[in-house]
Amino acid sequence: MATETRISSAIHAPGAILLISCYELGHRPIGLTRPLRALEEAGFTPDVIDIAVESLDVEKVERARFIGISVPMHTALRLGISLLHRIRQINPDVSICMYGLYATLNAGYLLSHGVDFCISGEASTQLVELVESLVKEEQSEVQEPDFSIAELPPLELYAQFENDGEVRTVGYTETTHGCKHLCTHCPIPPVYDGRFLAVQRDTVLAEIHEQVVEGATHITFGDPDFLNGPTHGLRILRAMHETFPSLTFDFTTKVEHILKNREHFPEFAQLGCRFVISAVEALNECVLTILEKHHTRADVEEAIDIVHGAGIALRPTWVPFTPWTTLEDYLEILQFIDTHRLVYHVDPVQYTVRLLIPPGSYLLNRPEVETLSLTLDEAAFSYAWSHPDARMDELHKTVNDLVENDARAGVDALETFYRIWALAADMQGQAPPKQRGDVHLPAPRLTEAWFC
Ligand code: SF4
User: Fold this and answer.
1) Interval between CA 226 and ligand 1 midpoint (Å)
2) What is the CATH number of the domain that holds 45?
3) 100: which residues sit within 8 A by CB, 6+ positions away?
4) By CB distance 3.0 to 4.6 Å, which of 124, 256, 277, 292 could disulfide with 38?
5) Is the pTM of this model over 0.85?
6) Which domain does 345 fall in, by range?
7) Does some domain include residue 35?
8) Residue having the nearest C-alpha atom to atom 6 of ligand 1
9) Are residues 192 and 234 in the same domain?
10) Domain count, the chain
11) Spatial CA neighbour of 399 closest among 334, 310, 313, 317
12) Distance between CA 330 and CA 323 in Å, rounded?
């Protein structure tokens, strides 16, 4: 999608293309590294900034003729919008493209608020095509650059792997894009519509190699779901382990895939897997049906047994605030986490996650949504909803404040967990929970809490 814009062949000059990442879950942004490589291979000499770990370099913005802002998630888009206003003040005529999952979902708003282009999906290829189409009329000779000016921030600036005093530097890659599933709350289906694409094995292994050379001792495979293509993933893991036997890793996969691929988990452990993230989201059957997760509470328990049985930690993620999640359901989630000794497997921010319904969300196709009075808040990039039980909105606010304050004060996750539980129990007229601090053992994690 584009407004009319022309940029000259000077786009080949060093730094004429600038790629900016706003936020990518605390790891080195693949929204910078892959488009950077693709543009360099196409003959351009882009520069990069990751404002999650460095300040906005005004000189870089001034000399740019084309700026790509990576917005793979909601938080990044919100940051991207304030960045957009700053960029326009510094360099009013620069062409600005937002790319990543949240760009096309919100294209209507973005294109009418100062963005020239929005692209999603295979952003690297599309960015190259877009820039090439902009300079086509100039018939300019493309020179293969023999140097790169882009300096990526060091890996040490990003989230680290941490487990009971063991610290590792984390590298990041993805073996696939998109997802073959259609969970209604996820931003991926509206863009990929049930498709997933494998990234070439050599590309992934080269990215791992580069980051190991830079000091990475742990790799996060950030695929939306690493086990969409289990054979592809396993081949990469085996090759990686052969070259770097002491490298550890984590990946994300759905409960259904854990059950389906149970026989591979002992091998994942042997290859260096330390933890697996899985989007459990809810335990209530009705909520799981609306989110189209295709798992049950019993499946989650089985998945925990499979993963923990292999010596790998399972880190479940949650969406505990939805219009259909009751106070009883919220308390059930807390009880479940306590019973299964998962307190250190859950980042406290997870107890605050509130369902996000962006424009184009597949949730809008669900009949249950028709009864909600949704209003699109374009500037917030989502539909506003309130819970039929006002206590849940109040609980959300209180838990949110509590988690933020505890995080700032460095309060232990266990203490935060029991405080939240006491709050929710009190709201339900129940006695505070019995604290079982001794059964919850530290679990491997990244030092940046997951947050979309
Ligand atoms: S939540 Fe996970 S499994 Fe579901 S569509 Fe999104 S990436 Fe795929």
Assistant:
1) 10
2) 3.40.50.280
3) 31, 70, 71, 72, 73, 76, 120, 123
4) 124
5) yes
6) 319-445
7) yes
8) 186
9) yes
10) 3
11) 334
12) 12
